[in-house]
Design a protein that fits this description.
Blueprint (H helix, E strand, L loop, with lengths): L9 H10 L4 E6 L4 E4 L5 E2 L5 E8 L9 E8 L4 E8 L10 H9 L2
Parallel strand pairs: 1-6
Antiparallel strand pairs: 1-2, 2-3, 4-5, 5-6
């Protein structure tokens, strides 16, 4: 099994993931319980994707800088992409199924 890369910054992680084919930019659509591609109408429910990698970044001086980067793929839709989200104190308090799925998969 290949070792998961480690990164110092969110931008370093996202840039490397893009180089490795994770080119779709996803965001959470909590009201619809899905993740959505920013450039198309593609919406993935929790059953449509898997989380390949998770990279956490602690805000050393500011807790608001705590971020998590997900490398996500969907064989069903033949797509790979990145989702960046805050976590910890400043994370979205929404308890949608999609957010719960992301948190469960990242542990």
């Amino acid at each position: 099994m290949a070792r998961k890369p480690t990164y110092e910054t969110v931008s370093e992680a996202t840039n490397d993931l893009i180089k490795r084919g994770y080119t779709t930019d996803f965001y959470i659509e909590a009201t619809k319980d899905c993740i959505v591609c920013r450039k198309s109408d593609l919406a993935l429910s929790e059953k449509d994707f898997v989380i390949d990698e998770v990279h956490r970044f602690e805000g050393e001086t500011d807790p608001g800088d705590s971020m998590i980067v997900y490398a996500i793929s969907s064989n069903k839709h033949n797509v790979k992409g990145v989702l960046v989200n805050a976590y910890g104190v400043y994370a979205d308090g929404d308890t949608s199924k999609i957010v719960a799925h992301l948190h469960k998969q990242s542990k």
